[in-house]
């Protein structure tokens, strides 16, 4: 097929949503893709989140249930296809909810279930995920692997270092490309916004994309001892305060911990995200309360980081599909803390929207639920 006959899709943003969309589009020889990224691949939440995956944690929702379950299954398929275990740390894990309270009069009879935590402070412990229902991956490595594989087709061009200043319109509502910050014009047949919390900054003639960012912190520890593959959702009662950090030991021997959030405003780009030293100190202190193996004495903090989770102000659910007021403009953004989990199904849905004009990988009702309004 000649280049002039190919559908040219421009994707703004090289986070996990943009990467998954690019990957699924790259499988079709009738499509070529240009990815525009201002800062770097996986420079936001896609590179700094925990990478936790759950099969059934959205089963309370009629529409999120089939959406997330389909994505969990796609993660399993991708891990086989791309050798996820070695390439991006994919593995099944056990998951626990655990309450720590040194002042409690009653302690859990199950405290020996996890040998590596501070058992003298465990008030309660419950298994909430099994090897069949929960898993993890390293989100940055996953995102980069998808882009790498897509580029192998030679139908994908990734441009890093320039953001999108504005869109190109054939008329006021028919989008036909983008203008980069340096004035370069790139014309295409479709434009997809995968800009996470920065989606709101894309200038549109008549409205804005209603996405906000939630500023959260995390640390990565390198402990002296290897920690088993147990994800922990914790509640820590300490000095009349309650903390709820999440703990994800990774297959490379490191331990990721997150939980400190604040109201820091969204900066202009991902390379300007502020890391609050107090939030890092809080997470480091909480790590010691969870396990002596994660103490300053027995582990080293190797990454101190922060990112913004993209949250839809319209529905609190992701926005996936064609923009209702502009032709050839599509949205795939607002995935909040389930962005890594739901990225494959989002990418597959977007590829179907772009190539077929309809979605078949989920039901019509589910696809309609996520459509921007």
UniProtKB/TrEMBL annotation:
Q: Which residues form a coiled coil?
A: none
- The answer on whether this UniProt entry bears the keyword Transmembrane helix reads yes
* UniProt keyword annotations, A-Z: Membrane, Transmembrane, Transmembrane helix
Classification via InterPro entries: FAD-dep_OxRdtase, FAD/NAD-bd_sf
**GO CC entries:** cytoplasm
- Does Transmembrane show up as a keyword for this record? yes
Membrane spanning stretches: 7-25
| Superkingdom of source | Eukaryota
* Name of the protein in question: FAD dependent oxidoreductase domain-containing protein
Q: Which SUPFAM superfamilies match?
A: FAD/NAD(P)-binding domain
The record's annotation in Pfam families points to:
DAO
Describe the location of the FAD dependent oxidoreductase domain by residue ranges: 8-353
């Amino acid at each position: 097929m000649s280049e002039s006959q190919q559908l040219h899709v421009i994707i703004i943003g090289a986070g996990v949503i943009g990467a998954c969309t690019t990957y699924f589009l790259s499988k079709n020889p009738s499509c070529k893709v240009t990815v525009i990224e201002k800062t770097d691949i996986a420079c936001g939440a896609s590179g700094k989140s925990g990478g936790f995956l759950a099969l059934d944690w959205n089963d309370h929702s009629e529409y999120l249930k089939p959406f997330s379950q389909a994505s969990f299954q796609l993660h399993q398929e991708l891990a086989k296809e791309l050798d996820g275990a070695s390439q991006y740390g994919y593995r099944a894990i056990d998951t626990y909810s655990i309450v720590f309270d040194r002042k409690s009069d009653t302690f859990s009879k199950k405290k020996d279930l996890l040998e590596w935590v501070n058992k003298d402070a465990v008030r309660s412990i419950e298994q909430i995920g099994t090897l069949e229902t929960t898993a993890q991956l390293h989100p940055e490595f996953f995102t980069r692997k998808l882009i790498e594989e897509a580029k192998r087709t030679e139908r994908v061009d990734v441009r890093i270092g320039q953001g999108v200043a504005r869109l190109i319109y054939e008329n006021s509502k028919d989008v036909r490309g983008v203008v980069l910050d340096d004035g370069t014009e790139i014309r295409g047949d479709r434009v997809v916004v995968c800009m996470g919390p920065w989606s709101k900054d894309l200038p549109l003639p008549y409205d804005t994309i209603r996405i906000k960012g939630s500023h959260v912190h995390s640390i990565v520890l390198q402990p002296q001892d290897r920690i088993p593959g147990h994800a922990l959702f914790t509640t820590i009662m300490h000095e009349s305060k309650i903390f709820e950090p999440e703990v994800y030991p990774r297959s490379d021997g490191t331990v990721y911990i997150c939980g400190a959030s604040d109201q820091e405003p969204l900066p202009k780009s991902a390379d300007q995200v502020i890391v609050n030293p107090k939030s890092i100190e809080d997470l480091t202190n909480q790590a010691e309360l969870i396990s002596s193996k994660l103490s300053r004495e027995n582990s080293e903090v190797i990454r101190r980081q922060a990112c913004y989770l993209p949250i839809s102000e319209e529905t609190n659910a992701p926005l996936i599909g064609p923009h209702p007021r502009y032709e050839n403009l599509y949205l795939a953004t607002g995935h909040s803390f389930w962005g890594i989990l739901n990225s494959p199904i989002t990418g597959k849905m977007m590829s179907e929207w772009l190539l077929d004009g309809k979605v078949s990988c989920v039901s019509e009702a589910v696809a309609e639920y996520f459509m921007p309004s």
